[in-house]
Design a protein that fits this description.
Elements (H helix, E strand, L loop, with lengths): L2 H7 L25 H8 L14 H14 L3 E5 L2 H10 L7 E5 L4 H10 L6 E5 L4 H7 L4 E7 L11 H11 L2 E5 L17 E5 L13 E5 L3 H4 L4 H4 L10 H4 L3 H14 L5 H33 L6 E3 L9 H7 L6 E5 L3 H10 L4 E2 L9 E3 L11 H6 L6 E5 L5 H11 L2
Parallel strand pairs: 2-3, 2-4, 4-5, 5-6, 10-11
Antiparallel strand pairs: 1-7, 6-7, 8-9, 9-12, 11-12
């Protein structure tokens, strides 16, 4: 089946009620047939519903659909996009290890990697996502993960997938790609050799800013690399000596679910999972509309005398254009542009009528963010520069409004 069909049908088997829409199973627990049945479930001898902290029938449909769209082998939904990133990293590292992270990451991912994980004895090392040789220089025997974004938020840098995957495979390190900005309709990182894909489902997947959630997808190539990771090839005493690589075809997701989600409990609400299922049904239509409007707006801003620079991958003048055309089907609905100063950016934001000042992206309504004062506020001026976020930069998330109305709003605010 094609993607649009998968997004509407995959993973849902109708019960005796024959409901066309996936039911919302708002239940924390499930009844067992008897104590033997319960024991088999808890000992992983039999598949079935145990407790919604481990899995839920509604959530499972969402997991199956995003897995199918990303061409993965299994998926795990969690309570937020940051939860998905944390679980993906925590699944691979222990104290004394290090991770390689892109210099062009969402500010929260940078803070998690450089500050929070540091408290657990994990070091973060930066590399340029468009210069694979810089990645090779920071890898050693303790490097356990490589984290980057398909399209960086908010700098719009497009990663050199071929180069990153080649280095990662040569050193046997698991790659994690945040595909939130591009969506699986623009690029499928797993088909390019990436091991793990993460999403903030709060963005394009839900499509209207109504729900928080995240998802992790395991690619088929991850299992081979995980043979080099002790936690996957040695007995887990909490499951009576179970070895994840021996037991499961998708050991990365299995350990994240049965170990990390079990113990840390950042579980997704079944209602939010249902909203994400609805969002997936129209994602292929929305991403095309978002992208077409964003390109028109980028071209308008490119010609404006007050705009110093426009960042949008599908602009022919953009430094990412070659990689964007190589890897991406759509440019996406996010663009950023630079005004003369911090103060000028603040004044511009105040004048807008349709765009709302919101620290979110990928809504059906158009949004604007000034990263230096919000999402990347915790970074120093030097770190802002390295992240591709100058103080005068503003980020636009182009919604589904009429594009002419959006251009007029921007034109008036730039006067």
């Amino acid at each position: 089946m094609k993607d649009a069909t998968l997004a509407l049908h995959y993973g849902y088997e109708k019960d005796k009620e024959k409901a066309m829409q996936v039911p919302i199973y708002m239940s924390t627990a499930y009844e067992y047939e008897d104590t033997d049945h319960a024991a088999r479930l808890f000992n992983l001898e039999e598949e079935g519903n145990i407790y919604t902290r481990i899995g839920n029938p509604t959530t499972k449909v969402f997991e199956k659909r995003i897995m199918a769209l990303e061409r993965g082998v299994d998926a795990l939904a969690v309570s937020s996009g940051m939860g998905a990133i944390y679980y993906s990293l925590a699944n691979l590292v222990k104290s004394g290890d290090n991770i390689a992270i892109s210099t062009k990451l969402y500010g929260g991912s940078i803070t998690l990697s450089t500050q929070t994980l540091k408290n657990f004895g994990v070091e973060a090392r930066f590399f340029d996502p468009q210069n694979p040789s810089s990645l090779e220089k920071v890898i050693d025997k303790k490097t356990k993960a490589i984290l980057f974004e398909s399209i960086a938020n908010p700098s719009l840098v497009v990663a050199d997938f071929d180069g990153i995957v080649e280095v990662a495979d040569r050193f046997g390190v698991v790659t994690i790609c945040d595909n939130t900005m591009a969506t699986p309709y623009s690029i499928k990182p797993i088909e390019l050799g990436v091991d793990v894909v993460v999403h903030s489902a709060s963005k394009y997947i839900v499509g209207n800013g109504s729900a928080i959630g995240g998802v992790i997808v395991e690619g088929k190539g991850a299992k081979e690399k995980l043979k080099n990771y002790t936690q996957f090839n040695s007995p887990d005493e909490s499951y009576h000596g179970l070895v994840y690589l021996d037991k499961f075809d998708a050991p990365f997701i299995s350990r994240a679910r049965l170990g990390l989600l079990r113990d840390f409990g950042a579980v997704l609400s079944p209602f939010n999972a249902w909203l994400f299922i609805l969002g997936l049904e129209t994602l292929h239509l929305r991403i095309e509309r978002h992208s077409n409007s964003a390109l028109k707006i980028a071209k308008f801003l490119k010609k404006h005398k007050k705009v110093k620079k426009v960042n949008y991958p599908f602009l022919k003048s953009d430094e990412n254009y070659t990689l964007a055309k190589k890897y991406l089907k759509y440019g996406g609905g996010i663009l950023s542009f630079e005004l003369g100063s911090y103060e000028e950016a603040k004044e511009f934001v105040k004048k807008l009528k349709i765009f709302s000042l919101v620290t979110n992206i990928a809504d059906s309504k158009s949004l604007i963010t000034h990263p230096a004062s919000t999402t990347h506020q915790q970074l120093s001026k030097e770190e802002l520069k390295n992240a591709g976020v100058p103080e005068g930069l503003v980020r636009l998330s182009i919604g589904l409004e009429d594009v002419d109305d959006l251009i007029e709003d921007l034109r008036e605010a730039l006067k």
